[in-house]
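User: Predict the structure for this protein chain, please.
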Amino acid sequence: MTLLNLLPLDIWSDLGGALDAIMQPIYWAISGVLVGFHWLYSRFLDPNRGITWVLSIISLTIVVRTLLIPLFVRQINSSRKMQLLGPKMKSLQEKYGTDRERLAQEQMKLYKEEGVNPFASCLPLLLQMPIFIGLFNVLNAVSNGFPLGHFFAQEPQLVTSLRSASVLGASLAGKFLPLDNGVGPNQIMAGFLILAMTATLFVTQLQMMRKNMPPESLTGPLAQQQKTMLYTFPLMYLFFGLAVPIGVMVYWFASNLWTLGQQWILIHNSPSPNTPAYVDWEARMRAKGKDPEAVLRKRLGMDRRPKPTVSADPTKVARQTPGRPTTAAPEAAKPARGADAAASASPSVQSPADASAARQKIARQQPTKGTRAARKKN
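Assistant: Here is the predicted structure, written as structure tokens:
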């Protein structure tokens, strides 16, 4: 036996077990919400009918997408802030284009001044991925007869109920392939959902390109890449959907519809700057008597940064501690000499102008000739 045989080589299995342990809370929550909606709809519907499970899956999709709205809004706001900084970023690149280190420093300084985090737009996407993966895995496992999630494990009869449920003759656990008995209800329902998912994704991407993308993004290599993605991404559903259970595709189609509606609301009310949708939004804002740029900056929170206090006198500190005497106060308390002593001994009240002139006198003066002679004798 060699040393290699003693080493733990099954790293991928250990990694998969760790990821599965991390996903368990998500499986627990998703199975709980799905089972909860099924219990609710079972109060007035047959618990074993397909419509009960379809409504439960759609309700689960709505709950999850609603909870993800704050992350979506944060992602959009971060993207908008980065777009507003586009002209300033371009000027920095022109100024420090050859000095990459100085350019990075100036960019980070600009982000700090404007209150923009360049990584904030990526964080919501990373947080959403485990949830979407958990949704797919729970529905896919239950459709295949495996109780994934705490609530399905505690009530295995619900797994049997979901697998045997059907809608218009098509089983929620059925798939387009294999074609054991030719084309039947499962193939018709699966084909309809595949085409529906493909169409909704295509319309969503097309709406984004035509309404919410700047003109410079529609020309050049980037535009060709966008057009390629416009046609290739929806085609993925045509191949991916052939082996996915119908119950999972119900969730996917409902999620696509939600994305389409959410994007339409976003483009209508908060479009990206320098886009056709933004021009229409500007016209609506001006018709209401509002400044579009001020509205956008306020919505993104970019006008809430504290401004530095400016003093009326540039020689004085703008912010001072109240009640603390100034530097000139001890000098003013010193006894005056010569003519100043006589003036200070006078009972007359000084005018504000005289008082101001007196404060401007130098506190320490040169000694007189008599005092010099006295020091020499000593």
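Residues 16-100+110-284 form one domain.
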